[in-house]
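Lab notebook, bench 4. We co-purified these components, and the gel suggests they stay together. Before we commit to crystallization screens, I want a quick structural picture of the whole thing.
Request: model the full complex, all chains together.
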Amino acid sequence: DVKVTQSSRYLVKRTGEKVFLECVQDMDHENMFWYRQDPGLGLRLIYFSYDVKMKEKGDIPEGYSVSREKKERFSLILESASTNQTSMYLCASSLDFGSWPQHFGDGTRLSIL
Amino acid sequence: EDKVVQSPLSLVVHEGDTVTLNCSYEVTNFRSLLWYKQEKKAPTFLFMLTSSGIEKKSGRLSSILDKKELSSILNITATQTGDSAIYLCAVGGTASKLTFGTGTRLQVTL
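Here is the predicted assembly.
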């Protein structure tokens, strides 16, 4: 089975802090994704990556950046956290370009105070 | 802009009832429609429907894709309390991206 692991289940940070969310997958998948999930808005794509050192903006990239230095690891960075970034963050991976399904991690519930 | 709409937003049923969840979409270059179940943690994959596979069934769950109406339904028969979850519909179009609906929250009571 595919295993997507997110480093923290719950995280509390302060406004203005730089925040790192880490995601690791163990199935040698090419594609990795970061979503945020908010009530009434569903899952929205922040960034995704097709390969190491490659990244593409999703639908809501503002205020975020990503890093993919190794194939199995995809990091989401909040450069200067703000309260409107309080959300559930979900990481996902899929086998290769144009393939589904995406497999999800358990999510990180991030609160920005 | 790609769009996926799910209905109803939420519903409460009694154990043993049959439920139908709806998903409609407007997506450029439609390739696949996926259903996920989300309990307290990660969304788990249920079905994927494509132009070459418009009907899927697994136990009490089944799903149909209507390419003409640009929609899909997810049926759950003989519901159980363990079916309580948020059901997510997602559509794949360009490349590997998925566009998600807001989900249907299902609660099954005794």
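The mean pLDDT of chain B is 93. Worth comparing against the SEC data before the next meeting. Residues 61 and 76 of chain B are 5 Å apart (CA to CA).
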